[in-house]
Amino acid sequence: MFQFASPQYLYGLLLLPFLVLLFLRSQWTARRRESRFGRRQVLKSLVPGRSTIRPVVKFVLLCLSVVLGILLLARPQYGTSTGSEKRKGIEAIIAFDVSQSMLARDVQPSRIERSKLLVSTLIDRMENDKVGLVVFAGEAFPQLPITNDFVSAQLFLDNISTDAVSLQGTNLAAAITLADKSFTQDKKVGKAIIVITDGEDHEPGAKEAAMAAAKAGRHIYVLGVGSRAGAEIPTANGLLRDRSGAVVKTALNEAACRELAAAGNGAYIHIDGSNVAQDQLQAQLRKLQQTDSGMVSDGSLNEQFQAVALLLFLVLLIELLLFEKQNAFFSRFRLFQRQA
C-alpha cells in the first residue's frame, strides 16, 4: 500500500504552472531585448560560448527538484514494516462461579469480589497471552471470547455478578465443557482452564468433563474460594433461607475441588485473604508450554523519503555543475550542441 503521511504538502505542486509561465515570460523578454541589437544569428556568432538549451535544462532540473522537495515533505510511505520478534504466551479461559453462594463473606469483601480482584490482577500481568471469560451457575454462558484485548477483559470482568445467570446451582461440568470449546485451534500454545468456585457442585459429570479436557491437552486449575467453616449468604432480602425457613450456610468443598483439579491434570489453589493464591497461580501458568510468533507486523508503513532525498540531492548536484555557458572542460563532449 502506497500513501503520503503528510499529503497536505502536495498542494505545493500547484506552483509549477506559475514557475513555467514565469520562465516562458523571461525567455520571451530576453529574446525581445536581443532583437533590438541585431539579428539572432549574428549575436550568436559574437558569443560562441552561449547556449540556448542549457538554461532550459537547468530550469527543468530546478522544477524537478521542487517536485522532489514537495514529495519529500509529504513523506511517501510504502510497505508494512515487519520484524522478527519472539513473543511467548498462553491461552487461559476463566470459568467464574456466579451462584448465590459466591456472595458469602467468609472471604472479604465477599467470595465473588475477592475472586474478581484476583482475576483482575492476573489480567494486568498478562502480556502476550490470550484470555476468555465464562460464567456459570446452574448452566454456563460465554462472557468474553478468547482475546488479547485486556482492556475489554477488565470491562467484562467488572460486570460479572450473581445476576449473570438466572438458573441457580453449580454446574461445573457445563462450565468446563464450554471452556474447553472456547480455545483457538493453535496446538502449540499451552491452554489453561481456570475454574473459580466454592466447590458446591449440584450436577454430575464434572470429573468426566475434566478428564476429557485434560485428554485434549488442557490443564484445569481449580481455585477454591471460601472457608471450610462456611458462612451465611447475604441477599437483598436478608440472609438466604431454604424452603423450611432455615438460614442457608455454604462452605468450601475442598475435597471436590482437589479431585476436579487432579482429573484435569492441573492443580488446586485455595483463595484466602492473602496474595498466596495469586502467586501460586502465576507459577503454575508459567509452567505451561508457550508459543513463539515469528514475523510480527506493527501495522505501520515503511518511510520512503530516503530514496526521494537521494534523488533530490543528485538533481541539485547536476543543476549546480551545469553552467549556462559552455565549460572549457565539458565542451569537448558536445552534450548540448550538434557536431559540425
Q: What is the strand content?
A: 15-25%
What is the rounded Rg? 39 Å
> Which sheet architecture does the biggest sheet show?
6 strands, mixed
Strand order of the largest sheet: 5-4-3-6-7-12
Through-space gap between termini: 52 Å
Strand-pairing-aware structural class:
alpha/beta
Poorly predicted parts:
293-297
Order of helices and strands: EHHHEEHEEHHEHEEEEEHEHEH
The outline comes out as rod-shaped
Average pLDDT for all residues: 84
Helix percentage range: 25-40%
Total number of β-strand segments?
Answer: 13
Task: Count every helix, treating DSSP H or I runs of 4 or more residues as helices.
Answer: 10
Name some characteristics of this structure.
single chain; 340 residues; rod-shaped
Give a description of the structure.
There is one protein chain. With 340 residues, this protein is α/β, with parallel strands linked by helices. The chain has helices at 15-37, 40-46, 54-74, 111-124, 150-158, 172-180, 206-215, 254-263, 276-286, 305-321, and strands at 2-4, 76-89, 91-97, 130-136, 140-147, 191-197, 218-225, 231-232, 234-235, 238-239, 249-250, 267-271, 291-303. The strands form four sheets. Strands 5-4-3-6-7-12 form a six-stranded mixed beta sheet, sandwiched between helices. Strands 1-2-13 form a three-stranded antiparallel beta sheet. Strands 8-11 form a two-stranded antiparallel ribbon. Helix 7 (206-215) links the parallel strand 6 and strand 7. Helix 3 (54-74) packs antiparallel against helix 10 (305-321), helix 4 runs antiparallel to helix 5 (150-158) and helix 6 runs parallel beside helix 7 (206-215). Mean pLDDT is 84; it is low at 293-297.
